[in-house]
Design a protein that fits this description.
Blueprint: H1 13-22, H2 34-51, E1 57-61, H3 67-74, E2 78-83, H4 86-99, E3 103-107, H5 110-117, E4 121-127, H6 136-146, E5 147-158, H7 162-175, H8 192-202, E6 205-215, E7 220-224, E8 230-236
Parallel strand pairs: 1-2, 1-4, 2-3, 4-5
Antiparallel strand pairs: 5-8, 6-7, 6-8
Length: 241
């Protein structure tokens, strides 16, 4: 594993500072990152069911502390994780080393990585990240550029509507304290039609979609057909333009 230093503009310094501050709790399943740990088995199974991860070249954009990246490596994928927050990357490296998991980590944005890694990956994942950057369309285009023809790109983010505000901000951050206050900005939430339009314009075709549901009584997540709050899109780059 190694790290590459880059200078980026499509990043919110406040967001990077927030994730750096919380980095040492990334792998604590009872910390602020508990939702990611609960979501991860569902998104991993969904991704693996569509692409069969074993042997694939995979890039995880906005990998944070490496929860998804490491789990995909456990499935036999050759995984690279990139992020712009230093401390979560360090945590990801240390945890992978401690677990004996081979994952490459680097400090980079998707846009910079795409300049040298165009068409290099079978699978690109960008999960719970688009709602934290100033220009999601630039990230989407970079993800498209980095995947090979016939390859897959997976996105997950949060819908923008009154229900998503009530669930992802009011309830999760202020009432139930599942997430730290200020984790999400409602204006940066993305409607499924908007994300689909951006992905289509970048050259991707929708293959599958799922909504992310949460039961506050059991504190369990599941994937289903309703995309009113959290949702995931599986996109594919055509073999021919």
């Amino acid at each position: 594993m190694n790290a590459t230093q880059t200078t980026e503009s499509n990043a919110d310094p406040a967001e990077l500072a927030r994730f750096n501050k919380l980095a040492n709790r990334w792998w604590d399943e009872n910390s602020e990152f508990k939702p990611l740990h609960r979501i991860n088995p569902h998104r991993l199974e969904w991704i693996d069911s569509l692409v069969q991860l074993a042997g694939k070249q995979v890039l995880d954009v906005g990998c944070g502390g490496g929860i998804l990246a490491e789990s995909m490596a456990h499935r036999g994928a050759n995984v690279t994780g990139i992020d712009l927050a230093d401390k979560p990357l360090q945590i990801a490296q240390w945890h992978a080393q401690a677990q004996g998991v081979d994952v490459r980590y680097a400090k980079s944005s998707a846009e910079t990585w795409a300049q040298q890694q165009a068409g290099q990956y079978d699978v690109v994942t960008c999960m719970e990240m688009l709602e934290h950057v100033p220009s999601p369309v630039a990230v989407i285009q970079a993800c498209t550029d980095m995947v090979r023809p016939g390859g897959w790109v997976f996105f997950s983010t949060i819908n923008r509507n009154p229900l998503s505000y009530a669930m992802a901000i009011a309830a999760a951050e202020y009432i139930m304290n599942i997430l730290p206050r200020g984790t999400h900005q409602y204006a940066r939430f993305i409607k499924p039609a908007e994300l689909l339009s951006m992905a289509n314009s970048a050259g991707l075709v929708l293959q599958d979609k799922r909504g992310l549901g949460y039961n506050p009584l059991t504190q369990h997540f599941r994937l289903h057909g309703y995309m009113g709050v959290g949702y995931l899109l599986a996109m594919q780059k055509p073999l021919k333009p």
